[in-house]
Amino acid sequence: MAELTKSVVNPTPKLKKEKWVDETYGEMPFKTVRKVSMKVTGMKSPPYAAHLQYNLLVNDSILRALVDFRGTVEVVYEPNSITKEEIKALIEGGIKSYDLATKHIAEIVKDEEMPYRKVAEDSFNLTARELNDKEKVGGSFNHMSTGGKESLV
Q: What is the number of domains present in the chain?
């Protein structure tokens, strides 16, 4: 694995901004990000999961989100802009549920730091493979992963 090095994007001292450079992927906006895994109640069907996933992804601080209708939620986020508690509060009260009556309760299972390079390596790429039969009939809401595994990274 290549080592990340600092690069000075703007040499003007007042506007000095550091970015991380990888020899394979080029400039990256962050060196590390965080991934939180949660169990969420109130996921009755795939439309509930799709609704929650969409509403998480419109937040600029959330880089990736995967919501399974069985209640598993994985979110990759930028830790300087949002915290895991704020994401939990957003799920529980900040986002209206699909039917406006269901209340979601989120429980944080795991929160870990990971290199941003890992996100770039496992980046979503629809052209990398053919959709399998289950995905062609709409049986999975994870159409965008490259390997068919149900995980963000």
A: 1
Per-residue pLDDT tens digits for 103-138: 889 999 999 999 888 877 776 554 445 556 655 555
CA 136 from centroid of its chain's CA atoms: 23
Its pTM stands at 0.65
Q: What does the DSSP 8-state code read for residue 25? A: T
Rounded to an integer, what distance in angstroms lies between the CA atom of residue 129 and that of residue 59? 28
**19-55: string of b/e by CB count within 10 Å (b at 16+)?**
bbebeebeebeeeebbbbbbebebbeebebbebbbeb
Q: Which helix (H) or strand (E) holds 111?
A: strand 106-115
Would the CA dihedral through 31, 19, 2, 117 be positive or negative? positive
Q: What is the DSSP string of 55-85?
A: HHHTSTTEEEEEE-TTSEEEEEE-TTT--HH
What span, in angstroms and rounded, lies between the C-alpha atoms of 34 and 51? 23
3-class DSSP assignment, residue 119: helix
Question: Does residue 13 fall inside a structural domain?
Answer: no
| 3-state SS, residue 46 | helix
Q: What's the domain range around 111? A: 30-125
